Amino acid sequence: MMITELLENLNHSGIAYAIVCALSAWLGKVWAARIGRSENSKLQEQITKLKDDLGRAQKILSGEVQKSVHVHKVQFEKEFLVYQDLMKQANRLRRAFFTLHRNLQPIFDNKKEADTHFKPLRKDFAAAFEVARDTVEENRPFYAEEVFAQCDRLIEMAVTELGSLSVADGLGILTFNEIDKMKKELTQVHKDLTDSIRHRLDTLVIIE
To answer: Measuring CA to CA, which residue among 68, 200, 188, 66 is closest to residue 142?
Structure first.
């Protein structure tokens, strides 16, 4: 009975209302603090993730910058021309080899007919080799190291073919299997040379 009367007196005097307001404010602060801590935790997680992503992006960018080569426009134009000429001669050499070593060869009645047929093809290959070799040597200072490495492989294979042709008529001394293997290797070298030039040009940053 006394508690009931006390509450009624508090209510009449407005004290109960004040207490309720105080409790509400206190609870509001408690919940606000909890929500704030929760949101802050989520925010910190997002910030940490963004920092990690930024760090990875910076590492990638740093690697790309380090791989890039800054050259003046004049040097780039010179390199572009020598690579263009190099591919022209490499294509000519490859074409001459495959023309000489066709998959389907004609059948000859005698050695003279065979010599007549193969002689101009052999000469074309030898001429293509000489131009390709001279192109590589004359422009060697302008080639990137990776490009020149492929040039070396190409010239080495051509020398092997010339050695075969120099000691025997017709298609030389290489067996069918050896020629077939060389075709595959020559195709791969040609592709590697093309890729090395493309990679070199992609890494150049032109300075005006």
So the answer is: 200
